[in-house]
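anyone seen this seq b4? input:
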Amino acid sequence: MENDCIDTLEHLFEIKREKKGKEPSKSERKQFCDIWVKLAVSEGYSERAEQYLYDGVSYCAAKPFKEYLARIENQEQGLQSFFAGKMYRTNTKTAFCLQTHLLALLLNDKKSVHLLPVVITNFSHTYFNKDKKRLGNIKSIMLKYFFEELNPKVHLVPLSEIDIKEQASIVDFISVVESTLEEIDPNGLSQKRVANITKVKQWIDEYRQSKGSQTVSPLSINNSAEAVAPVVPMSTESMTSGEPPVDVAAYLIDLLNKADKAAVAVKSEYVQQKRKIDILTQELKEEQKKLQCTIHQIADQQMTIDELREELSAAKGDILILRQNIAQKDSIIAEKDAEIAERIKVTEILSRDKNKQADEWLQRFASRIRVEYRDFVDALDVPMSCDLGENLKLQLQSIFDILEKGGMKLK
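predicted toks r here
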């Protein structure tokens, strides 16, 4: 059965390569999910099964793995095998897509609450790539695989009720989610995604309220603002040392002058930076126009390619039909040739039989006439008389009778 599964999966990947970037169809997604689950149930979450799951993330992401967990007895061990896999450590981008989708699927299913601690504990492990840098497309991944897949009607199990032993794990998880939420602009998003974003924010706020404090993750420390130096109040010693007040006024005036100079410098820098921003903004708009033009050209070319592919496919279909018709005609011709050959053979047999029958009839006919012929030969030397004439007449009558019995019609 494994070989059948492998052949089917490779066939689906071949179809995907031929489509050149197009999304798999609904039937192809379902077929991939069913076949992968069969393979995983048969041989476990092996390196081969893991490889096919990661290569087929565009089909249905973590859905086949979720169904695989539902079919095995030790679900916790099966889930741990996912996080212990080789691809999980080397392909962090796809691993983050899969675990994010898996988290949404587990939150949607109340029967899978016991698996949430494992996923949340490991969630931040793929937040950074192998170069120890934060993944650059976290926002798009979370939107596609979490906020789009999460069911808005499902009540999320409270974070405080999820049995996570290490507090740091849930703190890191919250930090990853909140850092992503800060980058997301809800304008232009679907109602489903906006509703799920609001629900997740409430989910995290309810956890903080249950703990009685705000939680800050070590993941966000590097992004914090620089500390501001405290303002040290002026000592009152100068006020009691007997120094003249004019010195204090001069000091304040000097501070104001420095502040004015700093303000002018800041304003000048602001103007320069704004000018640069305007130039960059204009360049960005022009590049966006070029990009849009290129996108339209690519779309037009893609449409042309699709039309040519459809025509090629139709031509291939016509050629196949013509080949089938030719094969049918060849088969009919072969049957007719065989039939003609058989008829020729039968005709030859019948002809031989007829010739033989005709020859036998002629021999019988000749044997019957031979007696009359002998009498005629004997009568050639006899002078003609009435008796001889009567005998000749009788012989002629006998010959005519023989001819009529042989099939000749004389009358």
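Residues 213-246 have pLDDT under 50 and may be disordered. The chain has two domains: 2-221, 245-405. kinda curious what u guys think
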